Amino acid sequence: MAKSNTFTYEYLKGLWDQNPVMKQVLGMCPTLAVTVSVVNGIGMALATTFVLVFSSLIISLIRKIIPNQVRIASYIVIIATFVTIADYVLRASYPDLSKALGPFIPLIVVNCIILGRAEAFASKNSPFRSLLDALGMGTGFFIALVVLSGIREILASKTILGIQILPDSFAPILVMILPAGAFITLGLLFGIANFYSISLEQRKREKIIKKYVDNNQEKVKE
Amino acid sequence: MKNVIQMIVVLTVIAVISGIALSEIASWANPKIAINRAKETEKAIFRVQPKAKSYKQIKNIDFELYQVFDQNNNPIGYAFPYEGNGFQGKIRLIVGLNDSLNVISRVEILEQVETPGLGTKITEEPFLKQFENLVTFPQIEWIKGSKPTKSNQIQTITAATISSKSVVEILNNGINKLRELKQKGVI
Question: pTM for this one?
Protein backbone atom coordinates (compact mmCIF):
# COMPACT_ATOMS: atom_id res chain seq x y z
CA MET A 1 0.00 0.00 0.00
CA ALA A 2 2.81 2.35 0.95
CA LYS A 3 4.38 1.84 -2.46
CA SER A 4 1.43 3.55 -4.18
CA ASN A 5 1.92 6.83 -2.26
CA THR A 6 3.48 9.72 -4.15
CA PHE A 7 6.74 11.19 -2.88
CA THR A 8 5.01 14.44 -1.93
CA TYR A 9 2.52 12.55 0.18
CA GLU A 10 5.35 10.70 1.99
CA TYR A 11 6.55 14.10 3.17
CA LEU A 12 3.20 15.83 3.70
CA LYS A 13 1.54 13.05 5.69
CA GLY A 14 3.75 13.90 8.69
CA LEU A 15 2.47 17.46 8.80
CA TRP A 16 -1.19 16.69 9.45
CA ASP A 17 -2.59 13.28 8.42
CA GLN A 18 -0.16 11.36 10.61
CA ASN A 19 1.30 14.17 12.70
CA PRO A 20 3.43 12.36 15.29
CA VAL A 21 2.17 14.46 18.20
CA MET A 22 -1.40 15.30 17.21
CA LYS A 23 -2.45 12.09 15.48
CA GLN A 24 -0.07 9.33 16.54
CA VAL A 25 0.37 10.73 20.09
CA LEU A 26 4.04 9.67 20.15
CA GLY A 27 6.96 11.34 21.89
CA MET A 28 4.82 12.83 24.66
CA CYS A 29 7.66 13.03 27.18
CA PRO A 30 9.75 15.66 25.34
CA THR A 31 6.58 17.34 24.04
CA LEU A 32 5.29 18.01 27.53
CA ALA A 33 8.58 18.59 29.30
CA VAL A 34 10.60 21.00 27.16
CA THR A 35 7.86 23.26 25.78
CA VAL A 36 8.19 25.99 28.42
CA SER A 37 9.74 28.32 25.83
CA VAL A 38 9.78 28.46 22.03
CA VAL A 39 13.57 28.30 21.88
CA ASN A 40 13.55 25.02 23.80
CA GLY A 41 10.79 23.66 21.58
CA ILE A 42 12.70 24.53 18.40
CA GLY A 43 15.95 23.10 19.78
CA MET A 44 14.29 19.86 20.81
CA ALA A 45 12.45 19.51 17.49
CA LEU A 46 15.63 20.13 15.46
CA ALA A 47 17.66 17.66 17.53
CA THR A 48 14.93 15.03 17.18
CA THR A 49 14.60 15.66 13.44
CA PHE A 50 18.36 15.29 13.00
CA VAL A 51 18.33 11.93 14.78
CA LEU A 52 15.16 10.85 12.98
CA VAL A 53 16.44 11.68 9.48
CA PHE A 54 19.84 10.04 9.84
CA SER A 55 18.70 6.94 11.71
CA SER A 56 15.84 6.40 9.21
CA LEU A 57 18.25 6.78 6.31
CA ILE A 58 20.84 4.37 7.72
CA ILE A 59 18.25 1.82 8.83
CA SER A 60 16.61 1.94 5.42
CA LEU A 61 19.98 1.46 3.69
CA ILE A 62 20.88 -1.64 5.68
CA ARG A 63 17.34 -2.97 6.17
CA LYS A 64 18.01 -6.04 4.03
CA ILE A 65 21.10 -7.24 5.88
CA ILE A 66 19.70 -6.88 9.39
CA PRO A 67 18.38 -10.27 10.58
CA ASN A 68 14.84 -10.02 11.87
CA GLN A 69 15.70 -11.24 15.38
CA VAL A 70 18.20 -8.48 16.15
CA ARG A 71 16.50 -5.62 14.31
CA ILE A 72 15.34 -3.73 17.43
CA ALA A 73 18.80 -3.98 18.99
CA SER A 74 20.39 -2.70 15.78
CA TYR A 75 17.90 0.21 15.56
CA ILE A 76 18.61 1.20 19.15
CA VAL A 77 22.39 1.15 18.60
CA ILE A 78 22.05 3.30 15.47
CA ILE A 79 19.62 5.73 17.11
CA ALA A 80 21.76 5.98 20.27
CA THR A 81 24.79 6.78 18.13
CA PHE A 82 23.06 9.72 16.47
CA VAL A 83 21.60 10.94 19.76
CA THR A 84 25.06 10.97 21.32
CA ILE A 85 26.41 12.84 18.31
CA ALA A 86 23.62 15.43 18.66
CA ASP A 87 24.30 15.72 22.38
CA TYR A 88 28.03 16.28 21.86
CA VAL A 89 27.49 18.84 19.08
CA LEU A 90 24.98 20.77 21.19
CA ARG A 91 27.23 20.76 24.24
CA ALA A 92 30.25 21.87 22.20
CA SER A 93 28.59 24.52 20.05
CA TYR A 94 25.39 25.60 21.83
CA PRO A 95 26.07 25.24 25.57
CA ASP A 96 23.11 27.42 26.61
CA LEU A 97 20.57 25.41 24.63
CA SER A 98 22.09 22.17 25.82
CA LYS A 99 21.74 23.34 29.42
CA ALA A 100 18.10 24.30 28.89
CA LEU A 101 17.21 20.96 27.29
CA GLY A 102 19.15 19.12 29.97
CA PRO A 103 18.44 15.40 30.28
CA PHE A 104 15.94 15.38 27.42
CA ILE A 105 18.59 15.17 24.70
CA PRO A 106 19.91 11.76 25.86
CA LEU A 107 16.27 10.69 26.23
CA ILE A 108 15.69 11.12 22.47
CA VAL A 109 17.03 7.53 22.32
CA VAL A 110 13.74 6.25 23.69
CA ASN A 111 11.55 8.75 21.81
CA CYS A 112 8.82 6.57 20.32
CA ILE A 113 8.66 8.66 17.14
CA ILE A 114 12.13 7.56 16.09
CA LEU A 115 11.85 3.88 16.92
CA GLY A 116 8.28 3.94 15.63
CA ARG A 117 9.28 5.31 12.20
CA ALA A 118 12.26 2.94 12.04
CA GLU A 119 10.09 -0.09 12.73
CA ALA A 120 6.98 0.98 10.84
CA PHE A 121 8.47 2.72 7.84
CA ALA A 122 12.25 2.79 7.33
CA SER A 123 12.62 -0.98 7.70
CA LYS A 124 10.14 -1.57 4.86
CA ASN A 125 10.76 1.28 2.41
CA SER A 126 13.49 2.64 0.15
CA PRO A 127 16.06 5.13 1.53
CA PHE A 128 14.59 8.07 -0.40
CA ARG A 129 11.06 7.39 0.84
CA SER A 130 12.38 6.95 4.38
CA LEU A 131 14.22 10.24 4.14
CA LEU A 132 11.06 12.06 3.04
CA ASP A 133 9.03 10.31 5.71
CA ALA A 134 11.55 11.25 8.41
CA LEU A 135 11.69 14.88 7.23
CA GLY A 136 7.89 15.06 7.22
CA MET A 137 7.58 13.55 10.68
CA GLY A 138 10.31 15.90 11.92
CA THR A 139 8.47 18.89 10.47
CA GLY A 140 5.22 17.72 12.04
CA PHE A 141 6.93 17.36 15.41
CA PHE A 142 8.49 20.80 14.94
CA ILE A 143 5.12 22.43 14.18
CA ALA A 144 3.45 20.77 17.16
CA LEU A 145 6.22 21.78 19.56
CA VAL A 146 6.35 25.37 18.30
CA VAL A 147 2.57 25.80 18.62
CA LEU A 148 2.50 24.24 22.08
CA SER A 149 5.52 26.12 23.41
CA GLY A 150 4.31 29.36 21.78
CA ILE A 151 0.98 29.19 23.61
CA ARG A 152 2.66 28.34 26.90
CA GLU A 153 5.35 31.00 26.61
CA ILE A 154 2.89 33.78 25.71
CA LEU A 155 0.55 33.00 28.58
CA ALA A 156 3.21 32.30 31.20
CA SER A 157 5.81 34.96 30.50
CA LYS A 158 4.16 37.27 27.91
CA THR A 159 6.97 36.67 25.41
CA ILE A 160 7.76 34.78 22.22
CA LEU A 161 11.40 33.92 21.60
CA GLY A 162 12.19 36.30 24.46
CA ILE A 163 10.46 39.28 22.79
CA GLN A 164 7.61 40.73 24.80
CA ILE A 165 4.25 40.40 23.02
CA LEU A 166 1.58 41.05 25.64
CA PRO A 167 1.40 44.32 27.63
CA ASP A 168 2.69 44.50 31.20
CA SER A 169 -0.86 44.83 32.52
CA PHE A 170 -1.54 41.21 31.52
CA ALA A 171 -1.15 38.99 34.58
CA PRO A 172 0.92 35.93 33.64
CA ILE A 173 -0.84 32.59 34.06
CA LEU A 174 1.66 30.73 36.19
CA VAL A 175 0.18 27.28 35.69
CA MET A 176 1.11 27.35 32.00
CA ILE A 177 4.81 27.01 32.79
CA LEU A 178 4.18 24.13 35.20
CA PRO A 179 3.62 20.54 33.98
CA ALA A 180 -0.14 20.95 34.45
CA GLY A 181 -0.13 23.75 31.86
CA ALA A 182 1.48 21.42 29.34
CA PHE A 183 -1.25 18.81 29.81
CA ILE A 184 -4.04 21.40 29.62
CA THR A 185 -2.66 23.00 26.43
CA LEU A 186 -1.98 19.65 24.80
CA GLY A 187 -5.47 18.42 25.66
CA LEU A 188 -7.08 21.53 24.16
CA LEU A 189 -4.91 21.22 21.03
CA PHE A 190 -5.93 17.57 20.63
CA GLY A 191 -9.54 18.63 21.00
CA ILE A 192 -9.26 21.33 18.34
CA ALA A 193 -7.37 19.03 15.96
CA ASN A 194 -9.89 16.23 16.36
CA PHE A 195 -12.85 18.59 16.02
CA TYR A 196 -11.39 19.91 12.77
CA SER A 197 -10.69 16.43 11.39
CA ILE A 198 -14.15 15.15 12.31
CA SER A 199 -15.97 18.13 10.82
CA LEU A 200 -13.87 17.76 7.66
CA GLU A 201 -14.82 14.09 7.48
CA GLN A 202 -18.47 14.88 8.09
CA ARG A 203 -18.56 17.51 5.35
CA LYS A 204 -17.06 14.98 2.94
CA ARG A 205 -19.65 12.40 3.93
CA GLU A 206 -22.53 14.87 3.58
CA LYS A 207 -21.33 15.80 0.12
CA ILE A 208 -21.35 12.14 -0.95
CA ILE A 209 -24.80 11.58 0.52
CA LYS A 210 -26.13 14.72 -1.14
CA LYS A 211 -24.71 13.66 -4.46
CA TYR A 212 -26.27 10.22 -4.08
CA VAL A 213 -29.62 11.69 -3.06
CA ASP A 214 -29.59 14.17 -5.98
CA ASN A 215 -28.78 11.40 -8.45
CA ASN A 216 -31.57 9.25 -7.09
CA GLN A 217 -34.09 12.08 -7.21
CA GLU A 218 -33.24 12.71 -10.83
CA LYS A 219 -33.77 9.04 -11.51
CA VAL A 220 -37.12 9.14 -9.72
CA LYS A 221 -38.19 12.15 -11.81
CA GLU A 222 -37.21 10.39 -14.98
CA MET B 1 23.32 -21.65 12.09
CA LYS B 2 23.90 -19.31 9.21
CA ASN B 3 21.30 -16.99 10.69
CA VAL B 4 23.02 -16.99 14.09
CA ILE B 5 26.34 -16.02 12.53
CA GLN B 6 24.64 -13.27 10.52
CA MET B 7 23.02 -11.91 13.66
CA ILE B 8 26.35 -11.76 15.49
CA VAL B 9 28.24 -10.29 12.55
CA VAL B 10 25.66 -7.59 11.73
CA LEU B 11 25.24 -6.42 15.31
CA THR B 12 29.00 -6.42 15.91
CA VAL B 13 29.70 -4.44 12.76
CA ILE B 14 27.02 -1.86 13.63
CA ALA B 15 28.36 -1.52 17.17
CA VAL B 16 31.98 -1.17 16.01
CA ILE B 17 31.12 1.47 13.41
CA SER B 18 29.08 3.45 15.92
CA GLY B 19 31.89 3.17 18.47
CA ILE B 20 34.42 4.54 15.99
CA ALA B 21 32.09 7.38 14.98
CA LEU B 22 31.42 8.33 18.59
CA SER B 23 35.06 8.34 19.62
CA GLU B 24 35.83 10.64 16.68
CA ILE B 25 33.02 13.01 17.67
CA ALA B 26 34.06 12.92 21.33
CA SER B 27 37.69 13.79 20.53
CA TRP B 28 36.39 16.74 18.48
CA ALA B 29 33.87 17.94 21.07
CA ASN B 30 35.56 17.33 24.43
CA PRO B 31 38.13 20.15 24.22
CA LYS B 32 35.35 22.54 23.14
CA ILE B 33 33.14 21.46 26.04
CA ALA B 34 36.02 21.99 28.47
CA ILE B 35 36.60 25.48 27.04
CA ASN B 36 32.89 26.29 27.41
CA ARG B 37 32.90 25.17 31.02
CA ALA B 38 36.04 27.17 31.84
CA LYS B 39 34.57 30.25 30.14
CA GLU B 40 31.39 29.92 32.14
CA THR B 41 33.29 29.72 35.43
CA GLU B 42 35.43 32.67 34.44
CA LYS B 43 32.37 34.77 33.61
CA ALA B 44 30.77 33.84 36.93
CA ILE B 45 33.93 34.73 38.88
CA PHE B 46 34.10 38.21 37.39
CA ARG B 47 30.39 38.73 37.95
CA VAL B 48 30.62 38.03 41.68
CA GLN B 49 33.92 39.91 42.05
CA PRO B 50 33.39 43.00 39.85
CA LYS B 51 36.64 44.62 41.01
CA ALA B 52 38.77 41.60 40.14
CA LYS B 53 41.19 41.66 37.24
CA SER B 54 42.65 38.15 37.45
CA TYR B 55 42.03 34.93 39.34
CA LYS B 56 43.81 31.75 40.38
CA GLN B 57 42.40 28.41 41.47
CA ILE B 58 43.59 27.34 44.91
CA LYS B 59 45.05 23.90 44.36
CA ASN B 60 45.71 22.13 47.67
CA ILE B 61 42.06 21.71 48.72
CA ASP B 62 39.49 19.13 47.66
CA PHE B 63 36.88 21.55 46.25
CA GLU B 64 36.77 24.48 43.83
CA LEU B 65 37.91 27.84 45.21
CA TYR B 66 39.33 30.81 43.34
CA GLN B 67 41.41 33.61 44.77
CA VAL B 68 40.94 36.89 42.90
CA PHE B 69 43.36 39.79 42.47
CA ASP B 70 43.03 43.47 41.58
CA GLN B 71 45.10 45.24 38.90
CA ASN B 72 48.18 45.48 41.19
CA ASN B 73 48.01 41.72 41.81
CA ASN B 74 46.94 42.18 45.41
CA PRO B 75 44.55 39.46 46.66
CA ILE B 76 41.16 41.08 47.26
CA GLY B 77 39.05 38.05 48.06
CA TYR B 78 37.61 34.79 46.87
CA ALA B 79 35.10 33.44 44.39
CA PHE B 80 33.58 30.29 45.76
CA PRO B 81 31.24 27.92 43.90
CA TYR B 82 29.25 25.84 46.36
CA GLU B 83 26.11 23.74 46.34
CA GLY B 84 23.46 22.43 48.69
CA ASN B 85 19.85 21.31 48.82
CA GLY B 86 17.08 23.60 47.68
CA PHE B 87 13.34 23.01 47.69
CA GLN B 88 13.25 20.42 44.90
CA GLY B 89 16.86 19.64 44.16
CA LYS B 90 20.39 20.93 44.25
CA ILE B 91 21.10 24.65 44.13
CA ARG B 92 24.57 25.51 42.88
CA LEU B 93 25.76 29.06 43.37
CA ILE B 94 28.91 31.12 43.32
CA VAL B 95 29.68 33.73 45.95
CA GLY B 96 32.26 36.52 45.97
CA LEU B 97 33.81 37.19 49.39
CA ASN B 98 36.36 39.70 50.63
CA ASP B 99 39.74 38.60 51.95
CA SER B 100 38.61 38.19 55.58
CA LEU B 101 35.41 36.38 54.48
CA ASN B 102 33.23 38.94 56.27
CA VAL B 103 31.51 40.72 53.41
CA ILE B 104 29.84 39.31 50.30
CA SER B 105 30.42 41.23 47.07
CA ARG B 106 27.79 39.35 45.08
CA VAL B 107 26.01 36.01 44.71
CA GLU B 108 25.01 34.30 41.46
CA ILE B 109 22.91 31.16 41.12
CA LEU B 110 24.54 28.77 38.64
CA GLU B 111 22.11 25.85 38.63
CA GLN B 112 18.74 25.27 40.23
CA VAL B 113 15.56 23.24 39.74
CA GLU B 114 13.18 25.27 41.92
CA THR B 115 9.48 25.78 41.16
CA PRO B 116 9.20 27.84 37.96
CA GLY B 117 7.80 31.29 38.63
CA LEU B 118 8.13 31.02 42.41
CA GLY B 119 11.39 29.47 43.61
CA THR B 120 13.15 30.55 40.43
CA LYS B 121 12.90 34.12 41.69
CA ILE B 122 16.10 33.37 43.66
CA THR B 123 17.93 33.84 40.35
CA GLU B 124 16.44 37.31 39.82
CA GLU B 125 17.93 40.68 40.62
CA PRO B 126 15.67 41.90 43.49
CA PHE B 127 16.62 38.88 45.58
CA LEU B 128 20.30 38.70 44.62
CA LYS B 129 20.76 42.44 45.11
CA GLN B 130 20.18 41.94 48.84
CA PHE B 131 23.43 39.98 49.07
CA GLU B 132 25.60 42.81 47.77
CA ASN B 133 27.80 44.11 50.63
CA LEU B 134 26.01 41.77 53.03
CA VAL B 135 27.89 41.13 56.28
CA THR B 136 28.41 37.42 56.92
CA PHE B 137 29.39 37.71 60.57
CA PRO B 138 28.46 35.83 62.71
CA GLN B 139 25.98 34.20 60.28
CA ILE B 140 23.72 35.39 57.50
CA GLU B 141 20.15 35.60 58.77
CA TRP B 142 16.84 35.62 56.96
CA ILE B 143 13.63 37.27 58.02
CA LYS B 144 10.16 36.79 56.64
CA GLY B 145 7.67 39.44 55.67
CA SER B 146 9.46 42.60 56.77
CA LYS B 147 12.43 44.68 55.69
CA PRO B 148 15.86 43.66 57.09
CA THR B 149 17.06 45.77 60.01
CA LYS B 150 20.60 44.45 60.50
CA SER B 151 23.45 44.41 58.01
CA ASN B 152 23.62 40.61 58.04
CA GLN B 153 19.97 40.02 57.20
CA ILE B 154 18.06 39.39 53.99
CA GLN B 155 14.35 39.19 53.37
CA THR B 156 12.92 35.93 52.01
CA ILE B 157 10.80 35.90 48.86
CA THR B 158 7.07 35.60 49.46
CA ALA B 159 5.83 32.14 48.40
CA ALA B 160 9.43 30.94 48.06
CA THR B 161 10.60 30.93 51.67
CA ILE B 162 12.23 27.51 51.48
CA SER B 163 14.20 28.37 48.34
CA SER B 164 15.35 31.66 49.90
CA LYS B 165 16.29 29.95 53.16
CA SER B 166 18.20 27.29 51.24
CA VAL B 167 20.34 29.94 49.55
CA VAL B 168 21.18 31.46 52.95
CA GLU B 169 21.95 28.04 54.43
CA ILE B 170 24.20 27.08 51.53
CA LEU B 171 26.07 30.37 51.92
CA ASN B 172 26.48 29.92 55.69
CA ASN B 173 27.70 26.34 55.30
CA GLY B 174 30.16 27.30 52.59
CA ILE B 175 31.47 30.31 54.47
CA ASN B 176 31.92 28.26 57.65
CA LYS B 177 33.92 25.73 55.68
CA LEU B 178 36.17 28.49 54.37
CA ARG B 179 36.57 29.97 57.85
CA GLU B 180 37.81 26.64 59.17
CA LEU B 181 40.37 26.46 56.38
CA LYS B 182 41.38 30.03 57.07
CA GLN B 183 41.95 29.26 60.77
CA LYS B 184 44.11 26.29 59.85
CA GLY B 185 46.04 28.59 57.54
CA VAL B 186 45.37 26.52 54.40
CA ILE B 187 44.10 29.49 52.39
Answer: 0.79
